[in-house]
Structures are given as structure tokens and as C-alpha cells.
From TrEMBL:
It comes from Lates calcarifer. The keyword Heme applies. Keywords: Cell projection, Cytoplasm, Cytoskeleton, Heme, Iron, Metal-binding. Gene3D superfamilies: Cytochrome b5-like heme/steroid binding domain. InterPro entries: Cyt_B5-like_heme/steroid-bd, Cyt_B5-like_heme/steroid_sf, Cytochrome_b5_domain. PROSITE patterns: CYTOCHROME_B5_2 (PS50255). One of its GO terms (molecular function) is metal ion binding. Residues 63-87 are annotated as: Disordered. This is Cytochrome b5 domain-containing protein 1. Radial spoke stalk protein that binds heme under oxidizing conditions. Required for the coordinated beating of multiple cilia maybe by functioning in a redox signaling pathway.
Length: 87
């Protein structure tokens, strides 16, 4: 039986580019590099790119593990942020 692998915040922080993107949340570490490759250039990935190598636990409800309605700088995770040049 394989033992669980543990990562330090510094190890997660080293994976902070689109070509090598990890995040931690709710005690887990997730390699999102395949997601970034698959949907390259999609504006909906901007919050994830901005959080590369960081803990994103604040995006989730700790009891239900659901995504919170407001995840920080973008109030709607399904809508890309507005372009300030178009306002």
C-alpha cells in the first residue's frame, strides 16, 4: 500500500507557471498543468493562473468542500474579469 505524499508550501510554490502549475487546497495538492494545457488561453483560467503555486483553500467551504459563491477578486467564477479598457 502506498503511503500518502506530503508537500511543503515551498514545494508547491515552486510549481508556479502555466507549464507547471500546482495549487493546494483543503490539505491536498493538485497538479493543474494538464488542465492549463487543455484549455490554454481560456479567460476562465485567469484566477487559477494568478494563484499558481499558492493555497486556494479560501475558495472552498471547509465543511461542504463546495466552491464558495465569491472566490476573491472575481465575484463570478464562470465569468471572466471585465477588461478595464472597455469601461
Amino acid at each position: 500500500m502506498d503511503r500518502p505524499r506530503y508537500f511543503t508550501p515551498a514545494e508547491v510554490a515552486a510549481h508556479n507557471t502555466v507549464a507547471d502549475l500546482w495549487v493546494s487546497f483543503l490539505g491536498k495538492v493538485c497538479d493543474l498543468t494538464p488542465l492549463m494545457s487543455r484549455y490554454k488561453g481560456d479567460a476562465l483560467l485567469l484566477p487559477i493562473m494568478e494563484s499558481a503555486g499558492q493555497d486556494i483553500s479560501c475558495w472552498f467551504d471547509p465543511q461542504t468542500k463546495d466552491v464558495r459563491a465569491e472566490t476573491g477578486s472575481h465575484s463570478d467564477p464562470q465569468r471572466p474579469p471585465e477588461d478595464p479598457d472597455q469601461t
